[in-house]
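Below sits my pick:
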Amino acid sequence: MWVWLARRLGQVVPTLLILSFLIFGLQQLMPGDPALILAGEERGDPQVLAQIRAELRLDRPLHEQYLHWLGDVLRGDFGFSWRIRMPVAELILQKLPVTAQLATMAFLIGALIGVPAGILSAVRRDRPADWLANAVALFGISTPNFWLGIMLILLVSVELGWLPPSGYVPPTEDFRQSVATTIMPAFVLGTNVAGVLMRHTRAAMLTALAQDYVRTARAKGLPERVVVWKHALRNALIPVVTLGTIEFGRLLAGAVLTEQIFTIPGFGKLVVDAVFNRDYPVVQGVVLTTALIFVLLSLVADLLYMAINPRLRHA
């Protein structure tokens, strides 16, 4: 297992190098000149533009810009934001906990609804419970997040006054208020996750329940709950774990519309503002951090596979 883990960690390095090259290269294809945006009212002065390009190394060949940027990244230096004038690493450390809290709450809501609903739907196939679970999943998948968010604000905040309509409070300042400000956007994001997880859990459980080892377990007289939870579910969870890590990574990458509606200063809003302002260092830092998160989540998924199914440890 340790050899496998070392091999997987060794694959992370070339993967991130390739991703860094793609991130830097695609960034250069964006239209517009950052120097013109940063110059402001003095954009018509060639000397000012030349000075800005020299300070930001925009006048150097692309391969020199890439190598200099990569060297800084390897030292943990993502550069300075051209617009906000503060270190990109500091910006990421400010915004990532906000999105991490929102993503964790949303994923927990989605998993606690979607996985049990998928199991129930598979066990009660073609019965009212199955129809109800499929209807809930279809609602979660097909309902736009921005519409559901607006409706919740109108109902829960404006009409009932139960929760604040927008804003964010860090849990270190006031944990109860922090949960109050993030529970609605987390529910909005979690409904989609719940629908996706429910459909995949149902399909995986139906496949597992049709296997020979399940029929053998039933023929031995084992209780149905043991057959479902111990024999069928453990094998059905493999594709669900894969999907779950992808969904969690997607949430960590930032939910732009939901963060805009609820005025949450997270990753999504940060990267959108950076793209519109041609703030290359911020875009590169955020995208590279997101790519690292997905790579690490892939490793976590592999470890969970072996925890769920011990036979994979010797594969």
